[in-house]
Amino acid sequence: MKLENSTLLIVGLGLIGGSVARAARAAGLCRRILACGRDRAPLQQALEDGVIDEFSTDLPALARQADLILVAVPTLTVAAVLAEMAAELRPGAVITDAASVKGRVVEDALHSLPDGARRFVPGHPIAGSEQSGYPASRVDLFVGRKVILTPGDDTDPDAVQLVTRLWHAIGADVHGMSVARHDAVLAATSHLPHLLAYSLVNALMRVDESGEHRQGHEQRQQILDYAAGGFAGFSRIASSDPHMWRDIFLSNGPATIEVLDQFMDELQQMRSLLEQGDGVAMESAFRRAKLTRDRFMDRFSAATSATRLPSMNSGSRVDFLAEAGGPLTGEIRVPGDKSISHRAIMLAAIAEGVTEISGFLEGEDALHTLQALRDLGVAICGPECGRVRVYGVGMHGLQAPRGPLYLGNSGTAMRLLAGLLSAQEFAVELCGDESLSRRPMDRVAQPLRAMGADISTAADGRPPLSIRGGHLQGITHEMEVPSAQVKSALLLAGLYAEGETRVHADLPSRDHTERMLEAFAVRVGRSEDGSDVRLAGGQKLQATRIDVPADISSAAFFLVAASIVPGSNLLLRHVGINPTRTGIITLLREMGADLEILNTRRVGGEPVADIRVRHAVLRGIEVPAALVPLAIDEFPVFFVAAACAEGETVLRNAAELRVKESDRIGVMAEGLQALGVDAESLADGMRIRGGSIGGGEIDSAGDHRVAMAFAVAALRASGPLRIRDCANVATSFPGFLELANAAGLRLRAEQEQIA
Ligand code: S3P
Fold this sequence. Notes:
By secondary structure, the chain is α/β, with parallel strands linked by helices. It has 4 domains: 3-168, Rossmann fold (3-Layer(aba) Sandwich), CATH 3.40.50; 178-277, 6-phosphogluconate dehydrogenase C-terminal fold (Orthogonal Bundle), CATH 1.10.3660; 320-332 and 550-753, Enolpyruvate transferase domain (UDP-n-acetylglucosamine1-carboxyvinyl-transferase, Chain), CATH 3.65.10; 338-547, Enolpyruvate transferase domain (UDP-n-acetylglucosamine1-carboxyvinyl-transferase, Chain), CATH 3.65.10. It contains 25 helices and 32 strands.
């Protein structure tokens, strides 16, 4: 069903319902907008405002006409509304709601809509305020605000897409999650704060259960007279609608009690600190809270501002403090493959049907891609424990985003999306953080222009990219440097192009895009060694299931770590061993590393294995040119292996490393030299003579892989290491510190606030 031709019924024309009606009307979204409510006055007002076309207090009569129904009434009233409408619904009608608790509402829907529960898409716009009622409604209430949908496995995907389109079209940022996760998260972020605000006001005013004041008038008056911003700020939400909040607490009692208990523990601790007069502990607790809150506010205001450029790491800097450690023992599984996670979201988004992804990397880079596709109007549930469900919109279903797409630190996201968006019929801007803004984009912009896309960049071909997509023509492109990102961008554009798109390089590069396109039922032609790839435009993608293996680029830190520490014996589970990614295994074996590949199997289109790594004495090598693209991301930690090896290691033909997240040749050479290693940077590589490693301070230049490589180097260092600027480790390896410590490293983070 098309939103444009639909009749929208809003049940309950308060702050939320009224604002949806205003925004839908302003955007010219639905053919007709009907409203139903208990009181005639606001309905009449909305009719006069031109916000709705018709109203009634007779719900069944309106329900018979509606294609899409938004139930925007208090949580415990939803059941009665659904029951009243159930027998009157049109076949195919889609229902959604706006209640703040989802578990209760979903139960009610199953009960009240025996035939229609599949077309009930539970929703929750996080956009309320302490004001309520139609007069408080605003046309822009949802702009930049999150709306959470909690569809189940059985919910009709078309219904999910229709509801997503409605919210997206009125400016909201639509997220999906499970009912249980929603209710737990909201208990902590919304329900508990409301409970506290109500309680604080009552406690200060000493209002007892009967509403009687237990405190003298004078004392109360003083509190109010002198209560400035603090009281006003903290108690703002105590002005919220008591009836609505009663319903919320009645519906989400257990989850709220759980967070309330945690809060009472915290308060109890605070009470002891006060009793003990422990200023140091108090200040440190306040500092932690301030840092967290400041960071939250940065992101919150960025997310709701027109330009929407959140900076994940602003306001604080993280250093790693590392000491010699090991041996590395036990079994670990590193997070999901970054390259595969990006591609899974993009291909699933333009496929037909629902794709289930498991093992998804919940790191900032892949999350930026996920958010970008949400901004392009795709309904995506998760990630929850690596599971993501993507409701594909088909080849032509992406919608214009509200503002620039912010891609953080991720070159892969920017280059691949440049390809995909070159073929869309809307304009879009792609931007990123400081490091991404320095990276070359001409390598994708030029061939995409040759295909017919209109792309402009900042000076020297750097981001931001402005893309006006359109009709594309297939081309043959010869890559000067083998790059999977360039190849993938052109293949994604090629899906939409007229004729054939062909990409060639002298050497093969990672082939996840080709494999995954095949898994989505696209025919891809490839030369035997993979250096030549082609596809015909006009093909469709069919949704599938994707299991993302653990990232060999993240595993590489542990392959080297266990190799260089005597006594190590570590098992890495479920690692992707795609032959276009295993350059590091070949190189380390060449150096004498003891790596055992066990239990090789195929998962989806990708080979996976467990890898056992034991300590071994390493020897220096010369890196063969053909292995450079197959180990391109692993050189920072490979240099650490070289620093621990006997003799000399030489890398050439790798000038590409100078334009990664940092200049990885320059930054690594400088860091190694600072630790007393005999390392010489070459224009296109590095020469390292193995020996001892000293302690000291080095700068990672905000590069995640440099930071983790030096954490590994610390294992063999004669003194402690301070590694500066490590927050970006979260881009590719969430949970690195915990996992590294569990495996035998001795590593901690120190967070520092910066102006
Ligand atoms: C990637 C390709 C490589 C790699 C990057 C991820 C990908 O870049 O360095 O981290 O997912 O396609 P290039 O294609 O530019 O070599």
